[in-house]
Amino acid sequence: MNAKILVIDDEPDVVDLIALNLKSSGFKIISADNGEAGIAKAKAESPDLIILDLMLPKISGTEVCKILKRDSVTSAIPIIMVTAKSEEVDRIIGLELGADDYVTKPFSPRELNLRVQSILRRSQPEQTKQERIKHGDLTLDHSRYEVFIGGEKIDLTATEFKLLAILLERKGRVQSRDRLLNDVWGYESVIDTRTVDTHVRRLREKMGKLADYVETVRGVGYRMLDAV
């Protein structure tokens, strides 16, 4: 994989550790040591993925995430947040702002590498038997990697698109949080299942009037209901 990764972190040792391990997998690494520089590089370099520390000088990581996700130039770039275990609230806020995943310090370089590769894989359009799925007023187009509600396009992150696609493809069947972690994120219960809840909540917000299509099955997971 020759993807370009932007690492935004003010700790040189952490940047060096990340760069060493990701370069060994063929990634090109660029870096920034503060939020302002990170935003500028994201716009100028168009990286394939951003690894973003939450504790940054000048501008916090959550604010950087918010700015990047609101800008049409950078909104589609996947973001992995790097957090301390004591920053759970900030981590949840980051996910709600559109970050795709997180790792907590101290983290395993191998685990980070696997997460990067998993996110980049699901950022690519998939070849499926059913390229276009119609569900009431909702249309998901695999070939164009687009989703429409009532003919109006809605902007989804790569993770949200994959999550919606799986729920649609398995309409009527309950998907447990652990199953979704495995099938959407590619992890065997490596991360907190609340990450699934956060992404479902964001997906529902973007679905607007069709949010009720995604049903919560208490204590289990989620299911896509039949269109009315």
Defining traits:
single chain, 228 residues, alpha/beta, Rossmann fold, Arc Repressor Mutant, subunit A, five-stranded parallel β-sheet, four-stranded antiparallel β-sheet, 40% helix, globular
Brief description of this entry?
Helices cover 40% and strands 22% of the residues. It contains eight helices and twelve strands. Strand 1, helix 1 and strand 2 form a beta-alpha-beta unit.
- The CATH topology assignment of the largest domain is Rossmann fold
- Mean pLDDT over the residues: 86
Please tally the helical runs, counting DSSP H or I stretches of 4 or more residues.
8
Order of helices and strands: EHEHEHEHEHEEEEHEHHEE
CATH class of the largest domain: Alpha Beta
Which architecture of the largest domain per CATH?
Answer: 3-Layer(aba) Sandwich
Helix content: 25-40%
Amount of beta strand: 15-25%
Which strands sit side by side, in order, in the main sheet? Answer: 2-1-3-4-5
Rounded to the nearest angstrom, the radius of gyration is 17 Å
Sheet with the most strands, sense and barrel status: 5 strands, parallel
Unreliably modeled segments: none
Number of strands: 12
Tally of distinct domains: 2
N- to C-terminal separation?
A: 43 Å
Q: Structural class of the secondary elements?
A: alpha/beta
Topology:
Elements: E1 4-8, H1 12-23, E2 28-32, H2 35-45, E3 49-53, H3 61-70, E4 79-84, H4 88-96, E5 101-105, H5 109-122, E6 132-135, E7 138-141, E8 146-149, E9 152-154, H6 158-169, E10 175-176, H7 177-185, H8 194-207, E11 214-217, E12 221-224
Parallel strand pairs: 1-2, 1-3, 3-4, 4-5
Antiparallel strand pairs: 6-7, 7-8, 8-9, 10-12, 11-12
Helix pairs in contact: 1-5, 2-3, 3-4, 6-7, 6-8
